[in-house]
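2024-03-11 09:14:02 INFO queue: dequeued item Gamma-glutamyl phosphate reductase, len=431
2024-03-11 09:14:02 INFO validating residues
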Amino acid sequence: MSLDSAETKTESTTDVATSVNQLADRARRASRTLARANRDWKDKALRAIADTIDAHRQQIMAANAKDLENGRERGTSAAMLDRLKLDDQRIDGLISALEELIGLPDPVGRVVRGETLPNGLRMRQINVPMGVIGTIYEARPNVTVDIAGLSLKSGNAVLLRGGSAALNSNVALVNYIRNALESVSLPRDLVISVDEYGREGADAMMAARGRIDVLIPRGGRELIQRVVTTAKVPVIETGEGNVHIFMSASADEEMATDILLNAKTHRPSVCNTVETLLIAKDSPAAPAVLRALAEAGVTLHTDARVASLVPGIETIAAGEDDWRNEYLDLDIAVKLVDTMDEALEHIREYSTGHTEAIITSSLAESERFIAEIESAAVIVNASTRFTDGGQLGLGAEVGISTQKMHARGPMGLSELTTTKWIVQGDGHIRK
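2024-03-11 09:14:37 INFO prediction written
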């Protein structure tokens, strides 16, 4: 239950749809105030949020500890508990992301194109806020801060449904964010949680066409597909990450080992971790890379040919499900491929369109990989962990879009805006 429950509940609390619609209308009204805010005012609000989170980190971590304890009691997986956890280092990361947003240009009002037409009309296409953004996500309290910060800087109000697993964490974070907004004379209702309404609240958000301008789901396959197939509100689909790395025969052993270890073990519970490794059959680096992964605690799900490369190391026979699986844990599917054509075909068959990478010393191979892979991010000779808004200079991200619409890949400030056409004349009429 929200610490602002007296403020956010309506009289008709049994009618969840009505209640959520009223919250969305309040967010819409708040967004009109934000539309008048210049960059300095927005940045002042972001600084207030960062300072408030810093000042209340102990309370935030105490709330998060309750969520972690509840998760362990429910038998939540280690990977999900890792996503859920907030510690000093991760709170420092939230603050750093807000500070990076402060340093970024305001996207609102940026001219996409502009010219004076032959008839004298002055035309501009400019970036403007979406309006009210809805986000449905799972067990990721850091997303609460990232989305609030990005929405604020891009001129949008936001409705959040963060899920029961992170309820205590999100209650604390949302209230501190709302207090910070009020401290700089911006409406508290620029950031509103609907968590108190549970799953029915998420359903009401999905049905709130005309009140919520765009809905962004972030989580596992089941959540994303439920939103994509159910929502009446326009959806930007963020992707599960069945991420591939193709290790060419020309791959340097040391480079390949470092990249694979980072891509798989740095933080295995997130969507940009590698899940499938495709190895060229004549790769001299293959045995060393596989042994390094196994020694790091990674379980290898392999075909028979791969298993023969690492005698003495226990492997699990890979089946069809392994090629499609987003493990989000210390597991990886590994296949030996005879040609680059076979690797590319495998990726086309099983990719979720998130991120694919190649490790190679061949310029021709890297250029072909870039040209033929259709995923949102393509990486050459680097870890897949770099598909991240913060790592790519966006300050933070709402998610990784895997669709081919205006927003693709890590979604930062620009992706949370749309455009408006401004036409100015001097009494012009069309003939």
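2024-03-11 09:14:37 INFO annotate: The two ends are 61 Å apart (CA to CA).
2024-03-11 09:14:38 INFO item closed
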